[in-house]
UniProtKB/TrEMBL annotation:
Top-level taxonomic group: Bacteria
Lineage: Bacteria, Bacillati, Actinomycetota, Actinomycetes, Propionibacteriales
Residue ranges of the TM segments: 78-99, 111-129, 135-162, 174-194, 206-227, 266-287, 299-319, 331-349, 355-379, 391-414, 420-439
Name of the featured protein: MFS transporter
Residue ranges occupied by any Major facilitator superfamily (MFS) profile domain in the UniProt entry: 264-458
Organism, as annotated: Nocardioides luti
Length: 458
């Protein structure tokens, strides 16, 4: 293709190069979310906190409490309360970070800086052992917040490197690539944890090495997008005076006032807050539910999560093609219905039935990547140009590994009932509310109100 002046249009080629570089950050950070937050951290922290609480058998569900900031929390609920606390802090931190990102011509520097800081803090989980659960508590909260900060810049870059018609494809490929990266490291960690005796390690050390490997992986592969992505000048910056930090607060307040003028954007953001909290809590609690309620050993749990990772790779690509034909909005709605079915089935799973547990894992993998990838790309169409950082900051406050309402409800229901079955079933309310809000959404109206072009399929 050439321009009217006869000069070749290199825009698509340049965008394709940056898109390939952009995918690598999904590959990098997915290892932290998968190995650490999804699989190993919660069960291991429950075991360590359980020892501190005086639980005799670390393999049994522990309802005894430990003291945190003057609160007495059940050891079995502690990881979920920590995740909720991280999200509460994120609600204050991420929007300011997003406003700063919108004003900066160096989004990739912010992305990499937060990523490397988060990886450094996450590496401290290696020192969580014996009864010393406190260092793990601090590390998971701080690293989760820093991961959210890096994802604000990462998501904002999507708009710089793709057109409206390319968003679903690019976002889906990024998620798919991320699941491959997370699954690859998890496969290595599966060998370490399951074969710890053969390589002369005890189980605790094997878990700690795996937690450390996720931090190193996250930091190392972030170098690729940092080097290969280009800087893009900010656009439509809201005029504000003062320092960059002060201007960021000013732009944030301006955007919050103007958000009322984008009712479809606000409706989707609320819907996403609910159904994504449900998704994140199901994934975050899966290993705990499987080990403490269904009596599966660590090998089955890690193998199931590994299965989900690789199935989700195909699921993300499948939903990307589904969006090309039917649109991202319809595909997201169908995904929320599928999550309702999964939660109901999970509640009635019999203990120690590996076949049914794996079948549910396959179902999760199919819809997991697709709903998340398309949510990101669809939301980008509802954002006024130049405000991506702020809007994605609000979006990422409810993103993977930082659920608030879901983990809080899961932990409270467990503490009240002493069982994870009603806790997992309670999550259906988030998918129901999300589906109801999505039904109230007019996607084409929302895209036009934001000033963006309506894709061929919505």
């Amino acid at each position: 293709m050439t321009s009217p002046g006869g000069i070749a249009d290199l825009g698509p080629l340049n965008r394709a190069r940056e898109q390939k570089a952009w995918y690598w950050y999904d590959w990098a950070n997915s290892a932290f979310f998968t190995t650490t937050l999804t699989v190993l951290f919660a069960p291991y922290m429950i075991e360590v906190a359980g020892k501190a609480a005086g639980c005799a058998d670390p393999d049994e569900t522990c309802a005894r409490t430990v003291s945190l900031l003057g609160l007495h929390l059940a050891a079995g609920s502690l990881p979920f309360y920590l995740t909720s606390f991280a999200t509460i802090l994120s609600a204050f931190v991420l929007p300011v970070v997003g406003a700063m990102v919108d004003r900066s011509p160096h989004k990739k520097r912010h992305m990499a800086g937060f990523a490397w800081s988060g990886a450094a803090v996450a590496s401290l989980m290696f020192f969580m052992q014996g009864e010393s659960w406190q260092i793990g508590a601090v590390s998971v909260v701080v690293s989760s917040i820093l991961a959210g900060c890096s994802l604000v810049s990462y998501s904002a870059i999507l708009v710089d490197i793709s057109t409206e018609d390319e968003r679903d494809r690019v976002s889906s490929k990024g998620w798919a690539f991320g699941y491959l990266g997370g699954g690859t490291l998890l496969l290595v960690n599966l060998g370490i944890v399951l074969g710890h005796d053969a390589i002369g390690l005890d189980k605790g050390m094997a878990v700690r090495i795996s937690l450390l490997s996720a931090a190193v992986w996250w930091a190392a592969f972030t170098i690729i997008p940092f080097v290969r992505l280009r800087d893009h000048a900010p656009v439509n910056v809201v005029p504000e005076s003062g320092s960059l930090f002060q201007r960021s607060f000013g732009q944030l307040f301006t955007t919050l006032r103007e958000l009322r003028g984008y009712p479809m954007t606000l409706t989707f953001l609320l819907a996403y807050l609910f159904y994504n909290d449900g998704i994140q809590t199901v994934i975050y609690a899966a290993s705990t539910y499987g080990s403490k309620q269904l009596d599966f050993g660590q090998s089955v749990l890690i193998a199931t999560i590994l299965l989900i990772q690789f199935v989700a790779f195909g699921g993300a690509l499948y939903f990307g093609r589904l969006a090309e034909r039917y649109g991202a909005y319809r595909s997201i709605v169908w995904g929320t219905y599928a999550w309702m079915v999964i939660v109901v089935v999970a509640m009635f799973l019999p203990a120690r039935n590996i076949a049914l547990f794996l079948l549910v894992g396959v179902a999760i993998g199919i819809v997991l990547g697709g709903t998340q990838a398309l949510s990101r790309s669809f939301f980008s169409l509802l954002i006024p140009r130049g405000r991506e950082g702020e809007y994605f900051a609000l979006y990422n406050a409810a993103e993977r590994g930082t659920s608030w309402f879901g983990t809080l409800l899961f932990g409270v229901v467990f503490q009240l009932t002493g069982s994870y079955r009603p806790a997992i079933f309670a999550l259906i309310v988030f998918f129901v509310i999300g589906a109801v809000l999505l039904a109230r959404l007019d996607p084409e109206r929302g895209i036009r109100e934001a000033g963006n072009a309506v894709p061929r399929a919505v």
